[in-house]
Amino acid sequence: MEGTTNWKNVHAISLFTFVDSLQFSFYMWSFWPYIQQIDSTMGATFVGIIMAISGVGEALAAPIFGYWSNRIGRILPPVYTSIVMSGVGNALYLFLGSFSRSLAPYAIIISRFLSGAGSGNRGCFRALVACNSQGVDRARALASSGGAALVGLTIGPAVQLVFNFMGADGVAIGPLVLSQYTAPALLAIVINAATAVYVHYFLDDSLHIPEKSDTISSTDIVQSDDSESEDTPRVPSLPLRMDVIAVIICMGTRSIRMLATSNIESIGAPFTEIMFNFTHAQALEWNSYDQTIVGALTIAVFLLYAFTNYTKWVSERSNCIVAIIGLFVFYILTMPWPFLPGNVDCTRFIGNGTHNWEWCEVLPPLNQWLYYITYAVIYGICLPMLNNSLQALYSRVLGHGPQGTMQGVNQAVGSIARIFGPLVMSSTFSHFGPQATWSVNICLLAVVIGIWIVAYRRLVPLELRRSNKIHSMSKNCSFSSSTTTISSKISA
Questions:
Q1: Half-sphere exposure of residue 329, counting CA atoms within 13 Å on the CB side?
Q2: Contacts of 59 (CB under 8 A, 6+ apart)
Q3: pTM of the entire structure?
Q4: Where are the domains positioned within the chain?
Q5: 180-202: b (≥16 Cβ within 10 Å) or e
Q6: N or C: which end of the chain has fewer CB within 10 A?
Q7: What is the DSSP string of 163-193?
């Protein structure tokens, strides 16, 4: 249904999701050197545990926030709660250096749990966008809000470059040490406060949906003007329910996407240090610069989706499968295959009392430029393509109606990948090296590609399933009046 989308509210939501995701992702590349500074015995496995704890917070909070918003017909109360959780988590992160060595790990765990729970509001916003958009506008509206969130998540780590001049030691201000690692947390707290004020004044958070049915009602039967019969048979109402298989495939694909990104988030920093013999500072600098390029490409894709008719030219299904294949290609190209020549320099990583990575001795090196260029291009283009198109497809598979609970469930299912992904990847990395973690991702992405090829035809919006039902009924039903027709006009 054209012309009924509330673009003002969609844009307000997009701005919030951008800055909220921005502050959430500040610590992606600086987290590893920061905890090494606090306690050098904290290894890659502990990083995986912390990432998993963040996922636990999101997985628990997302369905609760979604159900809560559905019950009250508004999203602001759960959103305010999420902002407070995020702010407290950032405050703990800011003061980690003031905790004793024995208490610091617990403070880190609580901090990341609260930050993860704070990010559980995204399902609420997707539900609100679904309520504020109609028809073919749905894909563009969800691309606007979801794309804005992904832009924030992508360029957030690059903000680290702004604070690198402060150095690792920083300046002590009472119990607070303001350094390149902690300054982003202070900025995140400011953002938390600003977003709370912003949504209060600029967001219409009502989840009210105009009366509309996902069934074929009597109004779908149109009689011609010369038909005077009041006994004309009516086509019975056919209730349409979401395609559960399609919903599961969408959720599963999002989970695998989360797993593919959590691999880089959890072990990306130690991986680049080992592979390219970087120091902490060099790895932070290179990764931040590369993330800046990823952010620029993500913004370009966001603009393509949000401000052009691209979503009308290319289907969500096509975008999704191309993006999944792109992620598969990334892992194929950056896999340290055993047949590659040479070995990395492992002197710093073996026998120093903090890490026990014997596999490093037989690890072949990658080309530094191949890794960083491939990461920037594929993660900068394919990841936002998949994120935007999959969100739009999932929303349209659900159909018209309140989506708060199902969007929360979708976010929670994706969060499960954030829970187990970092645990599995970091543990596998510590015991078997990056060849094993890359192999896991290659296999999972190959399976997802196969599933999409097999189930491609059923991954369609609910209104297309309704159209097929009407088409089928028009062939099979006979009427006493030849002037009676069935309208196939579908309100999307």
A1: 16
A2: 412, 415, 416, 418, 419
A3: 0.66
A4: 7-208+253-467
A5: bbbbbbbbbbebbeebbebbeee
A6: N
A7: HGGGTTT-EEETTEEE-TTTHHHHHHHHHHH
Token reading at 63: 């369905």
Alpha helices, H only, 228-338:
244-276, 280-307, 310-313, 316-333
The single-letter DSSP state of residue 236 is P
Q: Are 320 and 386 in contact (CB under 8 A)?
A: yes
Distances (CA, A) of 360 to 355, 371, 435: 11, 18, 10
Res 401: pLDDT: 62
Amino acid at the residue 103: L
pLDDT digits (tens, 9 = 90+) for 366-386: 899 999 999 999 999 998 889
Pick the CATH number of 7-208+253-467 from 1.10.1740.110, 3.40.50.970, 1.20.1250.20, 1.10.10.10: 1.20.1250.20
CA distance 306 to 138: 11
Amino acid at 131: C
> 320 and 390 in contact (C-beta within 8 Å)?
yes
Query: CA-CA-CA-CA torsion for 162, 166, 168, 174, nearest 10 degrees?
Result: -120
Fill in the DSSP letter of residue 128. Answer: H
Question: Cα(365)–Cα(138) distance, rounded to whole angstroms?
Answer: 45
The pLDDT of 107-113, averaged and rounded, is: 92
* Alpha helix ranges (H) inside 357-461: 368-398, 404-432, 434-455
Please answer whether residues 207 and 468 qualify as being in contact, where contact means their C-beta atoms are separated by less than 8 angstroms.
no
- Rounded to whole angstroms, how far apart are CA atoms 383 and 298? 8
Query: Please, which pLDDT band fits residue 347 given cuts at 50, 70 and 90?
Result: confident
475 burial class (0-12, 13-18, 19+ CB within 10 angstroms)? Answer: exposed
389 burial type by CB count under 10 A (0-12 exposed, 13-18 middle, 19+ buried): buried
Share of the chain above pLDDT 70, in %: 82
Query: In one letter, which amino acid is 302?
Result: F
